[in-house]
Write a structure and sequence with these properties.
The complex is a heterodimer of chains A (112) and B (262). Chain A is an alpha+beta fold. Helix content of chain A is 28%, strand content 29%. The chains are: A alpha+beta (112), B alpha/beta (262). The interface between A and B is medium-sized, with 31 and 35 residues. Strand 6 of chain A pairs antiparallel with strand 3 of chain B, so a sheet runs across the interface.
């Protein structure tokens, strides 16, 4: 159930930011979650109602921007989508790669 | 807070040297930090959007960089030792300290959920050590390391060994500010560990394969394990050794010695 903890972390960030801006009610929160972040979005959606109950995020629209993981092959420079850290380059089959995106786990914005 | 397994690191963390423990002078530490941020606001109609762009692990990353700067300034080479429980982290640490303490100034931070056992083993070698008991948490974080470093007050030109909590999952998400991360697997585990726990192997620089003295009795395929690990991280540097017999430790030692001479 680590997604519950992620959800609680998001609530903490939202409450802190809302307090700072002197807002008591939000309408929307936008998140950015990479496919290699270790967070399952389905599990996060399942945990969400429990995490936001009686908080500033209760009944607030949640928008998740999924970031598909991409890597660049260090051998042949080809950029490609990856699903696992051990995926190889589709062009040269090499494993040497740098992750370009997909590790995001971020609160992008809140709206009121 | 651990985003990986949901454990909480609240007020149960204890950071103490074996002497503190003797005196039963145990303190609780609170972990509240105030951070100030400036944000841009954009208005569209009656709606206001506040851009936050905050990583959920942001607080940990900031403190990790502070630890890294501290160590860099004092030429302290900090090693974050990670592995599953029982891979021989503490035994390898003991062996390394015993064999090299005449040449290198060592400091040790021990991380475990409970007990002073590991710190006692290190203190028996006359090496300065601080034990972090994480309580419910399954990993060390940069805030715990920052406090432990203040307590240890390591001298310049030394090596700081940080033994993380035995766990191949959660510690991979927490930068401590180390100079290098060393993942240890032992031959009594499965040789497919690197594929099962890719995050840990992806975030490490060195991979030590321990307990090679037991290879004749096991089905562990060293080359296969290395090949799997290279799929995740082609830049991994390997050392194959036995902390019990000392076989293969020379290469590990000479690598370690080079790090503070640079």
């Amino acid at each position: 159930m680590h997604e519950l903890t992620v959800a609680i972390g998001i609530v903490e960030i939202a409450e802190k930011e809302a307090k700072k801006a002197n807002i008591s009610k939000l309408t929307k929160i936008e998140l950015e979650i990479g496919t290699l972040s270790g967070v399952e979005i389905e599990a996060l959606n399942f945990a969400w109602p429990m995490a936001v109950m009686d908080t500033i995020l209760e009944n607030v629209e949640k928008k998740i921007q999924t970031v598909q993981a991409k890597a660049k092959c260090m051998d042949c420079n080809v950029s490609f989508e990856i699903n696992n850290l051990f995926d190889h380059c589709p062009a040269c089959k090499g494993y040497s790669k740098s992750i370009l995106q997909g590790k995001e786990l971020r609160v992008k914005s809140i709206e009121f | 807070m651990c985003t990986t397994c949901g454990c909480s690191a609240t007020d149960e963390i204890k950071i103490q040297s074996p002497e503190d423990f003797e005196k039963l002078n145990i303190h609780n530490h609170n972990h509240d930090h105030e951070h100030s941020h400036d944000h841009s606001h954009s208005h569209s109609g009656s709606k206001t959007i506040i851009e936050i762009e905050q990583d959920i692990l942001y607080a940990n990353q900031l403190l990790a960089e502070r630890n890294r700067g501290y160590c860099l300034g004092k030429n302290i080479f900090a090693v974050n030792l990670v592995s599953s429980p029982g891979s021989g982290k503490t035994s390898l640490l003991e062996k390394t300290l015993k064999d090299l303490k005449a040449e290198i100034n060592f400091y040790v931070i021990e991380g475990d959920q409970q007990t002073m056992n590991d710190a006692d083993r290190i203190a028996a070698l006359d090496i300065p050590v601080v034990q972090i008991n994480t309580g419910k948490a399954c990993h060390l974080d940069s805030d715990m390391i920052s406090k432990a470093i203040m307590k240890l007050n390591p001298a310049s030109d030394s090596i700081l060994m940080i033994e993380n909590v035995g766990n191949l999952v959660c510690p991979s998400a927490f930068d401590l500010g180390e100079s290098t991360r060393v993942v240890i697997i032992s031959t009594t585990e499965g040789d497919d560990k690197p594929l099962k726990y890719p995050d840990m192997f992806s975030g490490s620089n060195i991979c030590i394969i321990n307990k090679i003295d037991l290879l004749p009795y096991l089905n562990f395929d060293v080359e296969k394990a290395k090949e799997y690990a290279r799929r995740v991280n082609p830049n991994l540097v390997f050392f194959e050794l036995s902390a019990t017999t000392g076989q293969g430790t020379e290469q590990w030692y000479s690598w370690l010695k080079k790090q503070i001479l640079n």
